[in-house]
Design goal:
The chain has 115 residues and is mainly beta. It contains no helices and 11 strands.
């Protein structure tokens, strides 16, 4: 298991930006596929973005061109830069790590975009 702690959520106006951070534990953090997921009220949890150990990225269709995932293995951290935010981006955002024993989750951070 790996411990994950998200930060950076908050309230922002539509069109604004936020940067989420996820701090992880463990000496093998750099080997994990890391991802950001979100769950909006009344909706299923969905993939926002993921990044492999080698830095390859993948994005959900609704955020392509607006969000950027990155990682800093020296700091055991993953980031999600969110630009051009929309009201429909309002959700709880979760950091996740694919580790040998399964998937570990952070506690989530609330992002609210006002229109």
């Amino acid at each position: 298991q790996v411990q994950l702690v998200e930060s950076g959520g908050g309230l922002v106006q539509a069109g604004g930006s936020l940067r989420l951070s996820c701090a992880g534990s463990g000496r093998t953090f750099n080997t994990y596929i890391m991802g950001w997921f979100r769950r909006a009220p009344g909706k299923e949890r969905e993939l926002v973005a993921c990044i492999t150990a080698g830095g390859s990225t993948n994005y959900g269709d609704s955020v392509k061109g607006r969000f950027t995932i990155s990682r800093d293995n020296a700091k055991n951290a993953v980031y999600l830069q969110m630009n051009s935010l929309k009201a429909e981006d309002t959700a709880v955002y979760y950091c996740a790590a694919d580790v040998p024993s399964g998937r570990s989750w952070g506690q989530g951070t609330q992002v609210t975009v006002s229109s």
